[in-house]
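Can anyone check this?
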Amino acid sequence: MTPIFDMFQLVFTNVWTYAGTFLLVLSILVFVHEWGHYIVARLCGVRVESFSIGFGKELFGRYDKHGTRWKFSLIPLGGYVKMFGDTDPASAGHTETVGEGLKARPLSPDERKVAFFAKPVWQRALIVFAGPAINFIFAIILLAGLYMFYGQPVTPPTAAAIIKDSAADKAGFEPHDRVIAIDGVPVKRFEDIRQTVMVALDTPMTFTIQRGDKEIELEATPKRETFSDRFGFEHARGVLGLLGAVNGFGLKNVIAIDGAKITNEDQAVAGFKKSYDRNMEVTFKGIEGEKDSTLIVRPFKRLNEKLDTPEEGKDKMIIISEKVGDDIVKHGVGSALVEAVRETKEVTVGTLTALGQIVTGTRSAKELGGLIRIGAMAGDMAQAGIIAVITFTALLSINLGLINLFPIPVLDGGHLVFYALEALKGSPVPERAQEYAFRLGFTILIGIMVFANLSDILQLIL
């Protein structure tokens, strides 16, 4: 089956899993973002005319005691908060009158007090900044809650094995090396290594290694690899060649040890027994048509006393690491918040790095994800379980907050640029200039959206 057939089959047979999860997550994040604008506007004394989830024709809604219309609209791909005195939800202009046609009249002094445009520039900037800010805060709350009640997956940053001829092998890494820093930045988990290397692509890096009681530095350049997921979407990543959180391997797939051919498990047992506590090259048979792979390992004798006498019903296995897998570490409130802030920072830096690579041409623009790709990811997370959905929601919230801070007119970041100019020059940027800028910004955003979604479709088809 083709990727596009797989995609549509999955969507149509699991419509609530894919479309439902995507719309639910998006609606939650839009509500959070717009609520940030709303609550700070209320605190600053601004009247909010409407709070909408979605665009276009209103489906249903109600007024609250403050006169704000809370509503759901036809197109559920965004939302807005419209402030009193603004001519549109984007705050691209304002009006000094109330009513239409012959019934129009100037704003009264009391009405001007609650109009968004009449507020000091610092208050307007604070209201605008509150939307992206609360997306970051929401992500931190989600992650901290996850780390407190479920736990955080933590893997020691230690190499259980090295892939033969990989960047790590060429740089001189050895089994059981512990990475303590990358380019001077401390490393706490194996996930830190993976995340840093993946984003860096093929950039030379300095790794500080703990090897026994010695601390050494190794220079390595990860290998750039481009792969396609099951839907056909392309992704580029840097690959170092370290394996972590691997306890051992079954002997039935071993076909060579240090170049010597292995035809059965007994030969494998003999080969390992004579090579304990030193580095050896072990070649494994490729699974389902994949190429054979060779790993550099150093199995300890003390961990393999029962190598040739496994438990009943279990295959013979060589233990190469004392680490069985991820530890799920539950945090208290303080440490959970610290880890959540740290994770949010790393995701933000990684996203900015990847976008910078796209701008400079280092990374393909095909990796810009549109609604189709995000929807596919949301569905996959839903199938993986509630923990995956919460994590995905937090990551998407970070990206939503970050994107809205970009200095593009129409986005919150564009408004903040205008307010900064207003603060510097002592008067607002002329509305005509803002209007042209907003039109340009809108055109840019539409162009990016069309490109991203068209790219998704083409990758599914081709």
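Reply from J.R.: I decoded it. Residues 311 and 317 are 10 Å apart (CA to CA).
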